[in-house]
Design goal:
With 78 residues, the chain is of the alpha/beta class. It has helices at 26-34, 45-58; strands spanning 17-20, 38-41, 65-68. Strands 1-2-3 form a three-stranded parallel beta sheet, covered by helices on one side. The protein is globular.
């Protein structure tokens, strides 16, 4: 499957894609099938649950997609 925005992506051994704000892991499924393993960081519990269902149960990619129910930031804000 040709995906224009993945053309020229690095496919060398050890490469990993990190998807910050992974939503339901739809992009990550494509990457894991065509390029390299990836990590998904999704802070919203409902989206994380759907990402887990899609990546693990739906697509059978538990060994290629690592899921994290967390956000990325520079610290807590008040």
């Amino acid at each position: 499957m040709a995906v224009p925005y993945l053309e020229g992506a690095d496919r060398k051994a050890g490469a990993v894609v990190v998807d910050i704000g992974g939503y339901i892991a739809d992009f990550d499924q494509l990457v894991a099938k065509t390029l390299v393993p990836g990590s998904v960081l999704e802070p919203t519990p409902d989206n994380f649950a759907m990402a887990k269902a899609n990546a693990i149960a739906g697509m059978g990619l538990p060994d290629k997609i690592e899921l994290h129910n967390m956000a990325i930031g520079d610290g807590l804000r008040q």
